[in-house]
Amino acid sequence: MCVCPWLLNTNPHLKEHVVSILAVSITTVALAEIGDKTQLLSLLLASRYRKPIPIILAIFLATIANHALAAWLGVVVADFLTPEILKWVLIVSFILMAGWILIPDKLNDDEQISNRGPFVASFIAFFVAEIGDKTQVATTMLGAKFHDGLMLVVLGTTIGMLLANVPVVLIGKLSADRMPLGLIRKVTAALFAGLAIAAAFGL
Description:
The chain has helices at about 5-10, 10-35, 35-50, 50-80, 85-100, 120-130, 135-145, 150-170, 175, 180-200. Helix content is about 80%, strand content about 0%. It starts with a helix and ends with a helix. Helix 4 runs antiparallel to helix 8 and helix 5 (about 85-100) packs antiparallel against helix 10 (about 180-200). The longest helix is centred in the N-terminal third of the chain and has 29 residues, at about 50-80. It is an all-alpha fold and about 200 residues long.
């Protein structure tokens, strides 16, 4: 999708579509990331290296790389499925994600951080930890749902990841501990349930 400013000004429906994709992508991933193992990893990286700038840059680049692949996979899946099958795949996937979100995440004991510098170690650790994670799966589903706005999905999910992780890196455990994680998980689960309903009714 090529989104030019002049085109948005002349096509209000396109503008609404762009805003919708960005809003759903940012909100979905930002909420799903709260209390997720990659957010716990961000906390661990921040406490170990105490150099927020290279860690944040590494998270940004690792997220773009990881989510670009995830969103592209969603587009590929969408291309091989009929609209009706894709509709039900999305509905079931969103429902399963709603249940998965309610399960608290933990950072595995075998999650190791490299002895390399903060940027390289953070990039590798974050990219690997994000593989198969809730936010990556969510990005794949968003890529399938909004296959005409792949770049917007990647942009939105990356912004969502930064919104959830940058405060943790900057101010450490204080930001994570004071968040009502139980309530946030319920809100996120409700959001995915809403996406399932929207997919069911073709919204």
